[in-house]
Amino acid sequence: MTPFTYERASDPAAAARAVAARPDARFIAGGTNLVDLMKLGVERPGHLVDVSRLKLDAIEPRPEGGLKIGAQVKNSVLAADEQVRKLYPLLSRALLAGASGQLRNMASTGGNLLQRTRCFYFADVSQPCNKRTPGSGCAALGGFNRIHAVLGATEACIATNPSDMAVAMAALDARVETVTGEGAPREIPLGELYRAPGEGPETTLGHGELITAVLLPPPPPGRQVYRKVRDRASYAFALVSVAAVVDAADGRVRGGRLALGGVAHKPWRVEEAERLFDGGVETRLFDRIADAALSGARGYGHNDFKIDLARRAIRRTLADAAGDVS
Amino acid sequence: MTTLSPTKGPIGEPLDRVDGRLKVTGAARYAAERKPSAPPLHGVIVGATVAKGRVTAIDAAAAEAAPGVRLVMTHRNAPKQPEFGPARIAGNRFQRARPVLGDDRVRHWGEPVAFVVADTFEQARAAADLVKVTYEAEPHAIGLEEHLRDAYAPQTINVGMPTDTEVGDFEAAFAVAPVKVDETYHVAQQHHMAIEPHAAVAEWDGDELTVFTASQTIANARASLAATLGIDKEKVRLVSSYVGGGFGGKLGMRAETALAAFAAKALSRPVKAVQTRRQTFYTVGHRPEAIQRVRLSASRDGRLTGVSHEVWMQSSPVEEFAEQTASSTRALYGAPAILTRHRLVNLDMQGGEPVRAPGEAPGLLALESAIDELCHKLGMDPVEFRILNDTQIDPEKKKPFSSRHLVECLREGAARFGWADRPKSPRERREGAKLIGYGVSAAIRPNYIGPCAAYVRVAEDRSVIVRTDMTDIGTGTYTILTQVAAETLGVPLAAVKVELGDSRFPVSPGSGGSWGAASSASAVHDACLKVKAEMARTDEARVFEATGSVKGMRDTQAYKDFSQYCFGAHFAEVEVDEDTGEIRMRRMLGAFAAGRILNAKTARSQMIGGMIWGVSSALFEEAVNDPRTGHIVNGDLGEYHVAAHADAANVDAFFIDEHDERANALGAKGVGELGICGAGAALANAVFNATGVRARRFPITLDQVIAGV
Ligand SMILES: Cc1cc2nc3c(=O)[nH]c(=O)nc-3n(C[C@H](O)[C@H](O)[C@H](O)COP(=O)(O)OP(=O)(O)OC[C@H]3O[C@@H](n4cnc5c(N)ncnc54)[C@H](O)[C@@H]3O)c2cc1C
Fold this sequence. Notes:
The structure holds two protein chains of two kinds. By secondary structure, chain A is an alpha+beta fold. Chain A is built from eleven helices and eleven strands. In chain A, α5 packs antiparallel against α8 (about 165-170) and α10 (about 285-295) packs across α11. Chain B has three domains: about 20-30 and about 450-555, Aldehyde Oxidoreductase, domain 4, CATH 3.30.365; about 35-140 and about 190-285, Aldehyde oxidase/xanthine dehydrogenase, molybdopterin binding domain (Aldehyde Oxidoreductase, domain 4); about 150-190 and about 285-445 and about 560-709, Aldehyde oxidase/xanthine dehydrogenase, molybdopterin binding domain (Aldehyde Oxidoreductase, domain 4), CATH 3.30.365. The radius of gyration of chain B is 26 Å and the shape is globular. In chain B, α8 packs parallel to α15 (about 680-690) and α11 (about 475-490) runs parallel beside α12. In chain B, the strands form five sheets. A seven-stranded mixed beta sheet of chain B has the order 3-5-1-12-9-10-11. Chain B has a six-stranded mixed beta sheet with strand order 7-15-14-13-8-25, with helices on both faces. Chain B has a five-stranded mixed beta sheet with strand order 16-17-22-23-24, sandwiched between helices. The interface between A and B is medium-sized, with 33 and 35 residues. Bound molecules: flavin-adenine dinucleotide (FAD).
């Protein structure tokens, strides 16, 4: 870990300005990801701007319906919130499936969205990694890639986004509210927050752009289910996770949402797959949705099983969300 | 069942740990928390980033110029030390010199190449990042399966057991048998991962050295450190008052201890060094990856006619370690023909080390899976099969067992677990998307005793002090020795103070091989008897003291006349998600026969701890070596998975009442490692019972399951 200086921001705009002013500055919220990476030498900020005490810790109903979740709301608080549990059980479930009780008590909503990949090679500075050191190569490609992406990956990077929360947020059509380094407010659909894997920045946020809130529209009709498939019963990242909303009544599927975690550099939503939710009672409907969602999937050796696993998990989760329809 | 051991005093009672309050309040000081006479400097290890080669250049200028840095030690300025070799030595290898920064060679990834000492830990860590090491890498060999052609037979395997054995004519028996199994199992590389990382605080006073360190065996670590420093071991005081787990990883002396001692000498200041979690993956040994072929033959009525167990495992050209993986197979079942073999493959990695139940744990994963496969072919209840093939005579040594209650464990365990209600065939029971399965396995582990001495002193006020260099690595030694002393002397528990883990105290064999409790309790018992005899001769109110001892098994007739083992049976219920292949252990019960139990509570904790590790080794644990580099890809506890609480929610264990007077005067046997022995196989067998998928690669991950269902 390299030495760094530290300041506590007084308000969101000042925080954004402080980070924007120094190329080597970073925000720190719960620190549960950033500090680990600093100890490993993966992150080497010269200056930290602590945003954890900003008054961004409210969960408020929005006038037009839905919720506004402050970026500093802790994962544990968000998961336990009554409105969230009632309107967005998917989100509550996804949060509770992540990390451990201690970590969730520290982890913030904003930090969770921006946590870095768990790719082994990214976290090990002795190894080449295009994400960490652009142009150095990807050690995961020919290495041990059991936890890596099967969708949307490129030869430059096959890392996944590890967040459970983000998968649920993606399925719920969340938008991210920010303030830029220049002090300008901005809103970004969650689906546009993460860039395609390559050698450039991971997100569409500018340097110094602070996440201030996540905005959730009113919940879509239907039953929400989050299913996380992992190697041990708790405290493990998803090999595959499925966030599903299925609107079914009188034996017919009328609509739905599907987002996948653990398979790509971002929560994976496929429009063509979701269009199939209008498909009535076809017994093979969920198979077709799974096929569409996984179209283009490819394995890199150790992770080949994820494609079959994802298909199985999608079918099961959709069936669970549909209740007795399937 | 043997006669009830008469419990008149506190021995055997489920006494709470006498050091429990100190531990939960943080008052028990572990090595890194010990305070030397002046605040220590802090040292951080820099590990090699090639698997094999030579350090050609080290640029330490930036590190040396960094704030607070006092010393950057490399092979160029480290003290002269003895050479390490040869890979195999005649004596106690834990006491050999273990040079660090001794030369420019790199023998495995992560081997220390520099040690940076600074005023604060943060400064040392930051400066360690600045040390630039240039290597000339040489081609390395990594990957067991790829290098099997290089296998060789070691002279002996761990603890001096024979490498190969054969009783009867296995090949002949196998050739004609009507029912056979011939399968190959693979057990991944596993690591100790004690919660307390290896740590040391070293301080010199003239030519005398005091080191607070994390050691299971004081005498070993002390001798090894003295040999490495090239000084008389009388000049070294080593203290490990509290140890946060060892599991075999702290049997000897490790790099941080030698480096702290070197730097403390060079700087004339106390120096502290603590390994990081990642470093402990490279520098303290591991359970080597192994491939095991098991062949079984039986008559149609379920009698074993032959058992063969052949093992190929990773070793290191630098230091040989042959885990005794097939050794349990030599004594578990009464087959007329038994063949075992061990072969090593040298790879450019650190050598293996004992890891809880060395040999027995991985060997029983394979053997007890194969037995289940045989039972399935025979259509036999695997509990009845094991009872049918029990033996009261050690089939190899042709001697009776000192005590053997495997059958009682199987029967009593089956009754308490509800084995009779098990699903009789694979895929028979389901609850929604979950397939439910039951599995059973036998447990066996040798019973050892090591030469041990202990000092006991009774003061005028009848308060008692007990001293031995025996350690408490979280197992409960402080507590059981308190119980033994109180009962033997007839004094209240509160009158007894036990002091452990200091090389100034009489020498014990330490915590290892599950012999610590029986050895140290026997020595304390002997010392107390001597004191008591002395006290009986006089009415004087004075101080009484005595040193007691027990001989090691090699000098004890009962260990020559009898084959000494502990036994047990594991029962497991799992659920397997048919869609995702996820395996979750629902409940587990262990039944054990391990002599007289000295403390029902701490002994049970040992058993369930071992069983949980069994779950872990069957389902989770695997260190992945990248063959391109020789580094461990998943070297931290986020990705090297051990069982979490949710994976081990319902684990219970009980003991069959036993008192083995052939083991020692107290009738006690070792329990520390028995719990893991066979535990994993019970899960693997339950997975088969649930799904019909026979996984032979441990850990059994969900991809193996979905490939089969
Ligand atoms: C062992 C372990 C297991 C875990 N398991 C899981 C799991 O199963 N599932 C899961 O989803 N997660 C898991 N996590 C990850 C955990 O959820 C994240 O570490 C946490 O959510 C990050 O939040 P934080 O507030 O601590 O972020 P920090 O560490 O403070 O910050 C993370 C990043 O976000 C940036 N940042 C923080 N806040 C803002 C903001 N408001 N605006 C802009 N940038 C910001 C920081 O600069 C930094 O780059 C695990 C973590 C650990 C250590």
